[in-house]
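Retro notes
What went well: the complex prediction finally ran end to end.
Inputs used:
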Amino acid sequence: MTTVAAKPATKPATMAQALGRALRDSMAEDPSVHVLGEDVGALGGVFRVTDGLTAEFGEDRCTDTPLAEAGILGTAVGMAMYGLRPVVEMQFDAFAYPAFEQLLSHVAKMRNRTRGTMPLPITVRVPYGGGIGGVEHHSDSSEAYYMATPGLHVVTPATVADAYGLLRASIASDDPVVFLEPKRLYWSKADWNPEAPSPVEPIGRAVVRRPGRSATLITYGPSVPVCLEAAEAARAEGWDLEVVDLRSLVPFDDETVAASVRRTGRAVVVHESNGFGGPGGEIAARVTERCFHHLEAPVLRVAGFDIPYPPPMLEKHHLPGVDRILDAVARLQWEAES
Amino acid sequence: MTVMEQRGAYRPTPPPAWQHRTDPAPLLPDPEPYRVLGTEAAAKADPGLLRRLYAELVRGRRYNTQATALTKQGRLAVYPSSTGQEACEVAAALALEERDWLFPSYRDTLAVVARGLDPAHALTLLRGDWHTGYDPREHRIAPLSTPLATQLPHAVGLAHAARLKGDGVVALAMVGDGGTSEGDFHEALNFAAVWQAPVVFLVQNNGFAISVPLAKQTAAPSLAHKAVGYGMPGRLVDGNDAAAMHEVLSEAVSRARRGGGPTLVEAVTYRMEAHTNADDATRYRHDAEVDAWRDHDPILLLEREMAERGLLDDDEKRRVGEDAEAMAADLRTRMNQDPVLDPMDLFSHVYAEQTTQLREQAAQLRAELEAASEEAGEEAR
């Protein structure tokens, strides 16, 4: 008798649910995985990502800590020293700053300081970015700080499937990972089958989300859907834009990015983070160093303005949107071709 | 019942029903620093322990002078001496079992050596050929921590993890008086008390944070009093009394191992030397103040007691001194040899696997080194 495997039941799932599922599956698979943070227990986190974990695994595995981010990350360091694999939740981007000393001086450096004898497999989950109407201190794009710190991996998903796969990979990594979760994509939905989730991919590979021939939009996290929208809108202008989703800022996938730009000859880097000293400068420099003779125009950046994150009623003017991206594309020296 | 659930529920109740969660009185430190040497309690001290403490103190003092000499000879980049504080250092190491963990600060090289680490390996950080010269897991000694108090939450997390596993491991974390002003000190003590983690916090109050005296650091009645606010006992001890230090720390360690939770121990001591060899203590304190502490020297206090009880004769003193000299001579010989450095190590321990970017940078350095060595070869010809 032959059995026909039932087609996996896909149904709409949110990014928050996929992240929660990744935590759950990691905890079920590996008893050394512990979740700790503020309100991660009974409440399930302010974004409900840890919903149900305490009920399923108990308070010793998913722990409501005192309200102190340096203490949370500092104790996670000690737990990792003893062989556990802590996953820390920082409640919001700007609330992660008190933990910077622990992150920069210990988490990022411990493997190096101890000649590889005591690596710290810690995942620090940080909801980041704007676009949710948050009042001040709730919408920062803090990725540049983390990127500038050797010893950390910096990962950020843009899709429901990647949220699951990248978080699983981050927790499994023997290196510390700052896992940046785009807040405004928490409730984005995609068809997804939690019983047959996306494969766990190695950290550090970018992906071409939309192939195109005219120019490359290099982006990540919350700006990926914006760039895809811009690419659709650009068709009316006759531009066929390629969209590269970096997924991992550290390690940086020079290969995928450079291959794309060599194909298209033009590039725009798009992110919410401030432009000055932001990731875009590094990315533009790397692209120029590798693709100079393929470039038809300077690499441009569409970034947040160099201002403190604005109040919610003004944030739409700050965030890179479709029009600002298309304006940048229009400035890629197309005249030379005609 | 899980570890976290043992803490029980605390629900807010309106004022008439409100009460202290715990009675603060038993948490308060003694009014005077606890002493053993020169008191009646000394009669009960184990002679074997006193001999062991004495040998370690003498060895520790010699280690400090040798390491300081090595800075003058350019063999160490810097050395923060713990001369005058040897009783704290030694007692911290001896209060622990092999399975326990020690979390030292940068001034606690002596505790690390007293715990059994190779004296030369303990100086790697200060020589500067790498950051940590030992495998922390092998010795259960965390890296010497330079950022103040940041190692305290590590001790709490490690002790908490050990308790979750039911391993009966205790962590002892060391910090100075200046470090108690840091946020991490507060957060570590708070987490430890909330989690009832098996941790002992040892504050060596040596009077100064580099140049700043304690009066400018805190308005607390004593540093030990800070424990009460977290709901853990605070103990005030004479930090130059090795027997008292050993007794108090051992009690705190046993209490933690039994599931009794954390303790804060303030050891009142004095930093006899400058902050480091690079510091000038005459700018902020008078010699008379330092001299006043010479009569309260940890080795002197122990010698007096042992001599009175007939536990220390000239032969024993000579033997202990010779052992310390042998240790110093060996250290001197080994530290006078240039360390073997491999520049390519710069890229070896950043990540589990080198990133593409680090591989490229490593290749660049390798090429530079090869070019330099070829050039040197040509010049030699």
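What we learned: Chain B touches chain A through 45 residues (CB under 8 Å).
What to try next: split runs per interface for comparison.
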